[in-house]
Amino acid sequence: MELGKAQCLGSTAGGRQLSDIAEFDSVGLRYGTGAEVLRDLDFSLGQGGFYFLTGPSGAGKTSLLKLLYLAQRPTRGRIRLFGDELTEAPRDALPQYRRRIGVVFQDFRLIRHLSAFDNVALPLRVAGTTDEKVEGPVREMLAWVGLADRASARPPTLSGGEQQRVAIARAVINRPDLLVADEPTGNVDAEMAQRLLHLFTALNRLGTTVVVATHDVGLISATPGARLIRLENGTMVDPTGALKNPPRPPKGSA
Amino acid sequence: MLGWLFASPAERRLLGEARLRGPTAWVVAIMSFSIMIIAAAGLALANTASVLSHAIQARYSVEVPGGGANLDPLLRAVRSAPGVTAAQAVSESDMRLTLERWLGPAADSPDLPVPALVNFDVGPGVNLGAIERRVEAVAPGARIAAHSEAVGPLLRSLRVLQWVAFGLVLLLSAAASAAVVLAARGALDTHRFTIEVMHGIGATDLQVTNLFQRKIAIDAFVGSAVGAFAAALVLLLLSAGAAFAGELTGGATLRAVDLLALALLPLALTALATWVARTAVLTALREAL
Questions:
Q1: ipTM of this complex prediction, to 2 decimal places
Q2: Is 0.90 topped by the overall pTM?
Q3: Which of A91, A109, A114 shows the shortest C-beta gap to B13?
């Protein structure tokens, strides 16, 4: 068996064996008739793993995340998620899988005419949770991200960082099996970035598989045990995982 | 089955709470108004045709071109004929009064040959030949004419108008449906972002569709009700005219069952608009992943 598949990215976490939550088999993606933006992706993500997705701008990170959170189908290859083959699954079957995935978008994707509370509550309501049972968890989550007093504020009245936190609260309110975050710390200060990282690691400890696309080396280095997926020009490089657990930056450096 | 109609406040907030912002309700109101008026006219025409047809079905006239010299014996001969249930003579003064509409004062001229006329009704299975022979014996040259033949073209025109009205109701319903489809697509475009977010977090097409379906159903119901109310006012104002027409046609206007059908039209239009909106939204959503 060739190197680069489950062996490299999803095999262990803290010494325990992981089953795969996502498997990519020779996956390619192109938009319309353009060139492939992702090519020959062969890897799997272990359940309960923590992964960073890195690479230069335009490498295909966001496209890979779209495949992961089922916003896009691959143009070739096969994808298994949560143990099920979803490459050609009927679209009616996808919502039940999407409900198990929390997504933090780079552009937040908050609904502008809804309050912060309603935005965070949306996944619960979509899943059929009654209004009485929504109130408590949403208040708690808003408090956790430091926005307890901004529950009724609408996104346009929130700062970029506040919107980011609402987006994160919405992504994790359902305690998803898979959390996908695209540059989640791009609009927050260092302290909030640390708090978000703690939230992600806490969720990860509870069993959530976390995939974070980021350029933030500090974030990566602050997460020992996390694995690294590096994309360049739509293909995975360093499939041997040599870049996992990169060394911490020297003390005193920025 | 109608659970989609009762959305929670949170669900209502998803598409914004403002209603009647777009032209949908007004377009449906205009369609509803037009459909009600045309349907009422069609039903009244149908009733008129029915009453008229029933009234003349067994009615005949004996016309004596020479005039009314033998009118009384003729009337007696007709009345005594087997199968004749009623007969009455049209007086010369009434005939001249009728002719005056076309001839003016010349209708009073003694030189004008005014035909004698006897109208009579017959029972079922009557032998017209026997009546004709009796009439011929009293007034040679007299001619028997069935009213149904004379009024036939009018009845056919009324039937055609009925179908035209029915066709117009269908066309207007189709136009209202097209307007609803456009409104649904417009609403989808307006809320595309919200839909993408909802799909992204696991909302089903049905959940998204229910939001739009409810909103359009309410707009369509309000529009239908407003249009129907306006049409009812117009029909009430026209009721005097309808009564006049009723006198001409033996009292044919709108029956209780017709009024019930008219009252159900706004609901039918709302149901149609809702179904069309649901289909349009579901079809559009299926084009997305």
A1: 0.81
A2: no
A3: A114
